[in-house]
Amino acid sequence: MTAEKLKKVAIVGSGAMGHGIAELLAMTGYEVVMIDINGELLQKGKEKIKWSLDKFVEKKRIRKEDADATLARISTTTSYEQAGRDIDLAIEAVPENMELKKKVFSTLDSVAPPNAILASNTSTLSITEMGKTTKRPDKVAGMHFFNPPIMMALIEVIKGDSTSQETINTLAELAKKLGKTPIIVRKDVRGFIVNRVLGAVFNEAFWAYQRKEATMEGIDASVKYTGGFPMGWFELADFVGLDIAYDVGNILYQAYGERFKPCVEVIDPLIKEKKFGQKTGVGFYDWTKGRPRIPFNLLDEYDVDRSWAVAVNEAAWLIHDDAANPADIDTGMKLGTYWPQGPCEYADRTGLDIVLNKLKELHAKYNMEMYKPCPLLEEYVSKGRTGKKAGRGFY
Ligand SMILES: NC(=O)c1ccc[n+]([C@@H]2O[C@H](COP(=O)([O-])OP(=O)(O)OC[C@H]3O[C@@H](n4cnc5c(N)ncnc54)[C@H](O)[C@@H]3O)[C@@H](O)[C@H]2O)c1
């Protein structure tokens, strides 16, 4: 299946992500059928799409006729048989639960034409395992949108162990047609690219806070005002949802061991009290009166180079594992989380030797795996690939 041949797409699940993905595809001109478990949820999904299209019309981003035509391209059903019959692609966006996703994939496989691609919007789960429940694992891949799909410019396209290059090419091409930038995750690694690098900096900050090296506000002020990041790590964790950050953290710990040792003292009490951040009103911060105010005068409390050091280290691991290339990692962090620069760019500008020394210094001080330099970083520095000043680094 090539991108030009894609005409009809099933979106499975009409929740937070599903309805947004449906809207994006229909706006681009694809015929979309949304599947959910009951008519009421589908109705709600469609209303959210209508609301969003109305906003675009109001802001004169699109014409009323285009909004109407977009809506007319979206049908809804609770029947997989009805939806799947003549689709070229399905994008699954049901809750993050492997057993449920496996069921969805085997059902889709039984109803969709044999050449249709089946993609998952999972944030963390194994594409390979989902593919195994089908007779077409070569046509099963990850297509990880960011929230909200209509606004965010990035899509991670993930290769499962059996996914064909043709499938990856088609989904990357589709991402471009949707006006997005695809980055390729070449291996089915947990956390893919963005959540994995983000998981590393969150963890470093949580441990620094736990050791009372800086306050939460001090870390966030330093990250924002000194580091130039759009949000502090605690603020961002609250914004993402601490329940999600907690689940991703545990998945990274299971996958990579001690390097992602979770800081249970910091996050577990909040999870137990269901203080999940912005969506529940309270997390690390109180959001009931709006966005937390991060005091400017604390901008020196935390050394932001520590965040960069663990981010660079995790980027090096991604390259070492042949899961991603430096350009895709940098693009992912800039478009997926609005970082001012990517970790590989940062390392090349700062000097890989400087970053390596920082990691060594932190490792000697705390004896934690997260600071233990990735062998790739050691190798680059030993070969003189220290970055811009040497003419060669990650780039
Ligand atoms: N929310 C985010 O920020 C975000 C970002 C990127 C990826 N994701 C991933 O996207 C997926 C969906 O997340 P969400 O936040 O949209 O969840 P959600 O709970 O808002 O929506 C899930 C929808 O799937 C429906 N559903 C459940 N079982 C179904 C079935 N058998 N068939 C069809 N529909 C079914 C539910 O009724 C619900 O409407 C998850 O895998 C999540 O990890 C979420």
How are the SSEs placed, and which strands pair?
Blueprint: E1 8-12, H1 16-28, E2 31-35, H2 39-58, H3 64-72, E3 74-77, H4 80-84, E4 89-92, H5 98-111, E5 117-120, H6 127-132, E6 140-145, E7 154-159, H7 165-177, E8 181-185, H8 194-210, H9 216-226, H10 233-240, H11 242-256, H12 264-272, H13 305-320, H14 326-337, H15 343-350, H16 352-366, H17 375-382
Parallel strand pairs: 1-2, 1-4, 2-3, 4-5, 5-6, 7-8
Antiparallel strand pairs: 6-7
Helix pairs in contact: 1-2, 1-3, 2-3, 8-11, 8-13, 13-15, 13-16, 15-16
The structure holds nicotinamide-adenine-dinucleotide (NAD).
- Unreliable segments of 5+ consecutive residues: none
User: Mind telling me the C-alpha Rg?
Assistant: 22 Å
Bound ions, cofactors and other small molecules, one mention each: nicotinamide-adenine-dinucleotide
Distance separating the two termini: 34 Å
Strand portion: 5-15%
Strand order of the largest sheet: 3-2-1-4-5-6-7-8
| Count of structural domains | 2
Q: Any guess at the CATH architecture of the largest domain?
A: Orthogonal Bundle
Overall pLDDT score: 97
CATH class of the largest domain: Mainly Alpha
Helix-and-strand structural type: alpha/beta
Number of helices: 17
Provide key terms for this protein.
alpha/beta, 395 residues, Rossmann fold, 2 domains, 8 strands, N-(1-d-carboxylethyl)-l-norvaline Dehydrogenase, domain 2
Task: Give a verbal description of the structure.
- With 395 residues, the protein is of the alpha/beta class.
- It folds into 2 domains: 183 residues, Rossmann fold; 205 residues, Orthogonal Bundle (N-(1-d-carboxylethyl)-l-norvaline Dehydrogenase, domain 2), CATH 1.10.1040.
- It has 17 helices and 8 strands.
- Strands 3-2-1-4-5-6-7-8 form an 8-stranded mixed sheet, with helices on both faces.
- Strand 7, helix 7 and strand 8 form a beta-alpha-beta unit.
- Helix 15 packs across helix 16.
- The chain is globular, with a radius of gyration of 22 Å.
- The two termini are 34 Å apart.
- 52% of the residues are buried.
- The model has no long low-confidence stretch (mean pLDDT 97).
- The structure holds nicotinamide-adenine-dinucleotide (NAD).
- Nicotinamide-adenine-dinucleotide binds next to helix 1 and helix 5.
